[in-house]
Design goal:
This protein has 511 residues and is of the alpha/beta class. It is built from 15 helices and 26 strands. Pathway: Cofactor biosynthesis; adenosylcobalamin biosynthesis. It holds the Pfam family GATase_3.
Length: 511
């Protein structure tokens, strides 16, 4: 069975996901077969595996950093919030229904066998499992039924590294307070602490590190600098949403829906020097974009009503009427249609009028469609007419079925891939004027798609698109993971951490 190490944090957004990914990359570079694991993740950014199963994108990032194929056993429980009080619960890649927070916490221990089965599958095939916690291990009202922090560390008998975020301030209180609220057996699992997101002169910090070690009896094994790398983050915590400035030749506005999902679809566009991608939450931020994108949503009807109530519907209709390019993906595509109906209450029971910009009607059904796909654009008109035949790849993940109205034409031809689909070809999406929509997440990952989309926007502005090349997105991500590993090696005591991994929970934790 594999050895293990766990990254826990003093709170959410201390950088656990990135640190876990970085550790996976270092181990991979060292020739060690490592795999990530997070027993329970809460996120709206999800991914479809080759088997047609759904998992959180943070573990996908970590698997890519480890140089391995993402598998659903790396994230056996995924919670996708549908509103402030409930989430869709996905176990081993398949939805089990929507539960309130209270119901899930009552039933959480029922999922321990699924968690351990997934963990043991990985443990049998890898040398090291790098486990990520969630939130804080010191949530004293939740500790009794914990399956993701110290509860998971106990089940896996994993040594723990505790990370704190110095950029928020109070990092010494974060770490010392967390340690204080743990019981003695839990404290003994913590073999080292990490100060993350440090800016400034480390010589000023060192006296505090010594005092922290004295008070906790736990060595500080790293001070990781604040850095920016283009790596997928947990959806609710990303810095991407705070970027508002316009710096590129092309300005793309993404409407940040309250339940936005899979905004990683737009990372390839964000990486282009010629493009500025802004996530906007009010019509005051709309400006004069070259294109507007409607992203996916975990509650399409509710987010459509939010747009209507906040003036985005009128803005979009005027923008489209003036010839502006509008592109919708998944839930965004459904909103652009004539009508959305949810007769069974899959997300929110009822029928609402869509934005009326595409000749399509959507009906929700209980069964979720989960499949990897590839395909090509057919013969779109309008600004994207030159994209006819352009290939792409991605995945579908939705619970609605959209039907084109009579005489309407599809945007793309799709070929299903792997066990998640039936292996057949079928049309997808729709277009009308300069408004386009489809179900394919990750459609801009293919360089040809990103280049074609950018070329169309540049052409309208009178710029030549020659010489502009989209990044090879997969190669670009590999570069980012290597840079992350370099930072981890420089800022963390990898020799001691490797010794901790080797010795497991028997490694000494006192100075």
């Amino acid at each position: 069975m594999a050895k293990s190490i766990m990254i826990q944090g003093t709170m959410s957004n201390v950088g656990k996901s990135i640190l876990t990914g970085g550790l996976c990359r270092v181990l991979c570079q060292n020739g060690i077969k490592a795999a990530p694991f997070k027993s329970q993740n809460m996120a709206l950014n999800s991914y479809i595996t080759r088997e047609g199963l759904e998992m959180g994108r943070a573990q996908v990032m970590q698997a890519e950093a480890a140089g391995i194929e993402p598998e659903v056993c790396m994230n056996p429980i995924l919670l996708k919030p549908t509103n402030d009080m409930g989430s869709q619960v996905i176990v081993n890649g398949k939805p089990e229904g929507v539960m309130s927070a209270a119901e899930y916490y009552r039933r959480k221990k029922e999922y321990i066998p699924a968690v351990m089965e997934a963990y043991e599958k990985l443990s049998a095939r890898y040398d090291v499992i790098v486990i990520e916690g969630a939130g804080s291990p010191a949530e004293i009202n939740l500790k009794q039924d914990d399956i993701v922090n110290m509860g998971m560390a106990k089940m896996a008998d994993a040594p723990v590294l505790l990370a704190g975020d110095i950029d928020r301030g109070g990092v010494f209180a974060q770490i010392a307070g967390t340690v204080m609220l743990l019981d003695e057996t839990e404290r003994r699992r913590i073999k080292g602490t990490i100060i993350n997101k440090f800016r400034g002169d480390i010589s000023i910090l060192r006296p505090g590190l010594s005092m922290l070690e004295e008070r906790t009896g736990i060595p500080v094994l790293g001070v990781v600098p604040y850095f920016y790398l283009d790596i997928d983050e947990e959806d609710s915590l990303t810095d991407r949403f705070r970027k508002k400035s316009i710096a590129g030749l092309v300005d793309i506005a993404v409407i940040r829906l309250p339940r936005i999902s899979n905004f990683t679809d737009f990372a390839p566009l964000e990486s282009l020097e010629e493009v500025s991608v802004r996530y906007i939450t009010s019509t005051d931020e709309f400006g004069e974009p070259d294109a507007v994108i409607l992203p996916g949503s975990k509650n399409t009807i509710q987010d459509l009503l939010w747009m209507r109530q906040n003036g985005f519907e009128a803005k979009l209709l005027r923008f489209a009427d003036s010839g502006g390019l509008v592109f919708g993906i998944c839930g965004g595509y459904q909103m652009l249609g004539q009508e959305i109906s949810d007769p069974g209450g899959t997300e929110q029971k009822g029928t609402v009028k869509g934005l009326g910009l595409l000749p399509v009607r959507t009906v929700f059904c209980p069964e979720k469609r989960r499949t990897r796909v590839e395909g090509n654009f057919l013969f779109p008109e309008g600004m994207l007419k030159d994209m006819a035949g352009v290939p792409f790849y991605g995945y579908e993940i939705h619970m609605g079925k959209s039907v084109l109205e009579e005489d309407a034409r599809p945007l793309t031809l799709i070929q299903e891939e792997g066990a998640g689909g039936n292996g057949g070809a079928y049309p997808d999406g729709s277009f009308q004027g300069n408004v386009y929509g489809c179900y394919v997440h990750g459609i801009f990952d293919a360089p040809e798609t990103a280049e074609g989309f950018l070329a169309a926007l540049l052409k309208k502005k009178g710029y030549a698109a020659s010489g502009i090349r989209a990044r090879d997105w997969k190669a670009y991500k590999e570069e980012q993971y290597d840079r992350l590993a370099d930072i981890i090696r420089r800022s963390m005591d990898m020799k001691t951490i490797c010794e901790i991994i080797e010795k497991g929970n028997d490694a000494p934790c006192s100075l």
